[in-house]
Model the fold of this input.
Amino acid sequence: MPTDNYFDAIVLGTGLTESTIAAAISKAGFKVAHLDTNSYYGGHEASLSLDELAQWADVHSRPDLTAQSNNFSSVTRSETVPPHSRQYSVSLSPSVIPAVGPFISSLVASGVSRYGSFKLLERVAIFDGTQIKSVPQSKEDIFQDKTLTLIYKRRLMRFLMFASGEFELSNELAEKPDVPFFDFLISTFSLSDEIATVITFAMAYCNFKTDLTLPALRRVRKLLKSVGRYGPSSFLVGYYGGSGEIAQGFCRTSAVNRGVYILGKNIATISQNNGEESELSRTYKYTVELDDFPETLYSRCLISSPYHLSAHLDSITTVSHSTPTSGSTQPVAFAKCIAIIDKPISFKSSEHVSAESDENSSSTSGISEPDTAIIVFPPGSLASGSSNSSAHVLTTGPGTMTAPAGKCIFLNHLTEMLSDSIVAGIIYISIPLSSLVDSSPEPLIKPYLDTVLSMASSKDRKTEPLFLVHYVQHISSPEPSVTPANTSPSLFVTPLLHPDLTQSCDEAAVAAETIFWNAIRSLESSREGSERPPDTNVEDINTVESFWPSVGPSDDDESEDGW
Amino acid sequence: MSKQFQFKLVLLGESAVGKSSLVLRFVKDQFDDYRESTIGAAFLTQTVTLEDQTMVKFEIWDTAGQERYKSLAPMYYRNANCAVVVYDITQSASLEKARTWIRELQRQADPSIVIALCGNKADLSARRQVTQEEAKKYAEEEGLMWGETSAKSGEGVSDIFTAIAKKLPLTAAPSQRAGGTRGAAPGAARAGVDLNKQPSTQGSNEACNC
Done:
């Protein structure tokens, strides 16, 4: 068919944002070709097996940096990949999903939620300098907290009331618009240093002590709204590595709505036609040629991740990238670590048991081993750690299908059986950096990793990671610049996602919706009077009214009217 | 009450061998000569009732065209209990492709997966390029089930799905099986969270039909 290679949109990159856009545009009735130069789905948000992760580390540590790998530096890994590689789903963008927010709304409205599986985050904890303490997840938890005095409980409640309301117009905020959040908590609500620290870093998930008040307050409000939607935690954790798996779900949604998928092919050329040759080339402006692929692809608009496009940008147009501004409260990069362990991480339930295993640790009754947990290290909490940056740690285990457990898995008949006692887990550590460093992130990560590993160790056995990857992930634009103002109206570049534990999913959803609407406007405006290839289904064309069309009977998997 | 089990079944095979037609026949007992590729459905379901009144519900995933450029996501194979690998008996090259897909399944899917090799378009036997003997021999070597079908006439279609249903391990507790089927979406009741649940608890804990 001659129309096979003509698309309404070509989407480059299968990261979370691009995959969401591809699904939405396909569902709106437009024809999408979705490409990725990687042979795996998910881009910077991919979920990988250990073998794939090792390969990823090798590719990104090569000195001949491709455009894509410019986002990563100082990548190192352990030499030996442990067995049962495929039983792991390691996320390049470890994240939790706020139970209320644009991302979860998209998951439900698009129907992608049924492709995935989700669990509530089981634990949020903070290291206060000497011990790991659970962070209360709800107002009820705070009421029951015996460590808080009544007066602080009241002040805290006053703050929570404020933070869950419409604080944007409040006097409290108007008086101090540029005050760091931490200082705001102390000066406006007279909270103690300790409580302000918990709120700043384990509720607002600030990167630095200097993070500003308004965005932090908004994160706290979202967290408060999220509690109770699905249970006691504000966050959900996606199975199989979260974002990467969900990106695949969006891609499948695009595919079942006629999206065409081509992965693992290098892009030879991207060009923009001037429309001089024919009417058709005026409409189908973009031409993409792939290596080792016979057909040329044409499209009316082009949507790309920055790393897929950058190598070809000169031939199309120039997109200005904002450069990182040092000195601002936005991090310019993140020092990151992925550690695979073969013991679960245990928390002591009691509030006042020391984190360093002492004489009390023999009592097992107060010990829990959550499958998923966030552990926050505020700035200065570890003597050998960072005094400016907070460190956010996410741990996941077999319960979210990210790592194997001894008993309940089928193994390839060629490999040996895991012993029953093994419960593997993944530790992700992320530390925001306010200035760029060329050195290895390992020394910076080490004290945090050692502290978390000690939680997985018993008296007689110190847990060592089975596999370790360290790297620095760069943020090329501190503010996601979604606006296509600097691009031509049919070319859209998705912003690079912040690798932010609690915000990245929502950030992807917001960026995806913005670009979706811009692309739809562009497609709809070029529709009238434009030349289309023969036998285009005109009846397919409806005016797009929402990001996700309401779920009709054809989307209901239980319905027999599916096809 | 009779026992009910739910399994995820994935379809594989070269483009245009009739994967979707086969399912359309199985699920809706319909056939359309000019069907284009699959549009719109995440997956379809159909239930087979065995002689002992055991109900086996298949959740059938079509490739949705992602097989065309070998771009199937790992999610597709995830938690698949059974697979139907389809070839076209009038195209010997399609059996070669089926072999590739079977190797891919052996690499990607759970080792306990039940695989059926299915020669479709049996109504076009005049143009046959793949003999029954050849396909059967290959299936036996690889330990696969085998059958020929015609999505057009309906011949053999329900037979192959029933044969798969009989071969699936119907020993696990039904609820456990349902949980394993798609990672945990129906298992929402079991371990995971059902995202479609309304914020307010509406009486019963019954999962919605997602």
Chain B has a mean pLDDT of 82.
